[in-house]
Amino acid sequence: MRKAPTLLALLALLLFLPLPARAGGGGPVPAPPGLTATEVSFTGHGGLTLRGTVLKPPGTAPRAGVVLVTGSGAGVPREHLRTEAVEFARRGLAVLIYDKRSAGYTLFRRSYSELADDALGAVRTLRAQPGVDPARVGVWGLSEGGWVAPLAASRSRDVAFVIVVGGNAMTPLRQQIWNEASELRRAGVRGSLIDRGKHNFARLAGDIGLFAEAHHDAQGVLARVRQPLLGVWGDRDLLTPPQENPPLFARALRRGGNTHYTFRYFRDADHGLHQTPDGGRTRGEALAPGYADLVAGWVRDVTSGRLPNADAPTPPRQDHPTVVAPPSAWWEGKWAQLFAAVLFLVAFAAYPLTALARRVRGRRGVANGWARTLAATGAAGFLGAFFYLFSLVMGKGTATGPLLFGRPLPWVLLQVTAVLAVVALVGTVLRWRREVPRGERVRVGLLLVAGAVFVPWAFYWGLL
């Protein structure tokens, strides 16, 4: 992969979407009452050794098993899925949970392919455990794991079934844009900050290449899945669009000839199918009532040959639709944005710096108030928009500030600044035609070029 120039890399550090969890130290999970716990290790992608725990009821009778694949974050410890593992095991399944890799998984780099290889290593290990029927072992994936688990299943016939929880059949970038827009809407924000500012900011991160797996082809993967699939969503999911994803899953599976899927939805359940007391903002300790029973019963059925046939009831409603986020066209992509950024930094800074240098030398140019205003407002609009959008990324939608007619006050001030820049551009053009001396024409001409580019740039980012 070609590396972006240094400036793009620096931009990407600021453009990347919410940080994944820090690497956490995993460790053995003690056996809860009525269950056995067996510590295991296995080889994941690249020869990496991963460690986990198998929880199951006592006894040697062969039983179905499931490997749990967690959501985003480097080094997520197996304890994170302990509640699910215990509840599934108490209903008769053998469950393997493991510490997620941190090697090769960073803020800016992750590979669903590598994570799928890790999951298949766990499947091989669980299939070899005493008391587990190797023909009845499947994978379960939560959130990011909802992209990983189907990919693992598409690669191996050893996987008997697939379960996705809060899963997406859309690209990670499209899902993340919806997630961020939802946070802003819950804060009362409306208008161009959501529709253009944040939307295009996220797309630029994907273009630069440091929004990992931004355009992962989830539907292409699902079309290659031949195993029965259970999809489960909570109606209070604030991270994954619960209304749009089930039809996308069904369409992709049918395209590959697979009609053996079941979709279910749970009231007052969050992204991970835990009960939530406040509409999804807070996760409760307990799983949604009936969820663990559904998983255990569905696994028993499909591993006994009783396959579902396109069982997909109407999904719950979501507050607002997603927006398709394809890779940017050439005129809006990383190179166009880099060109605009360099032009603005050079042109808007050159005008006042040149004036300062002349003053230091004792030479005075012709005062041009419009040009000075254009340089100041253009620079403020460009830098201000960039850093404000960055603050929203780091604050995850909580740094909006006071609202004025559904727009954060900082965004309103940036929009006013952009309008002033346009007015100053017109004034500078009129002044150029009448009275700009020959010696001023180079720096004023460069300023006019930057101002002319600033207008469509500001429209694109929602400042105009």
Description of the molecule:
By secondary structure, the protein is α/β, with parallel strands linked by helices. The protein folds into 2 domains: 21-171 and 216-303, Alpha/Beta hydrolase fold, catalytic domain (Rossmann fold, 3-Layer(aba) Sandwich); 334-461. The chain is built from 13 helices and 10 strands. The strands form 2 sheets. The chain has an 8-stranded mixed beta sheet, with helices on both faces. Strands 9-10 form a two-stranded antiparallel sheet. Helix 3 packs across helix 4, helix 5 (172-186) packs antiparallel against helix 6 (192-208) and helix 10 (334-360) packs across helix 11. The longest helix is centred in the C-terminal third of the chain and has 27 residues, at 334-360. The chain crosses the membrane at residues 335-357, 369-391, 411-432, 444-463. Residues 1-23 form the signal peptide. InterPro entries: AB_hydrolase_Est10, AB_hydrolase_fold, Pept_S9_AS, Peptidase_S9_cat. It comes from Actinomadura namibiensis. Keywords: Hydrolase, Membrane, Signal, Transmembrane, Transmembrane helix.
Compact description:
The chain has about 475 residues and is α/β, with parallel strands linked by helices. Helices cover about 45% and strands about 15% of the residues.
Helices and strands in order:
Layout: H1 6-15, E1 36-43, E2 49-56, E3 63-69, H2 82-90, E4 94-98, H3 112-127, E5 132-142, H4 145-155, E6 162-165, H5 172-186, H6 192-208, H7 218-222, E7 229-234, H8 245-255, E8 261-266, H9 291-303, H10 334-360, H11 369-395, E9 403-404, E10 407-408, H12 409-435, H13 441-461
Parallel strand pairs: 3-4, 3-5, 5-6, 6-7, 7-8
Antiparallel strand pairs: 1-2, 2-4, 9-10
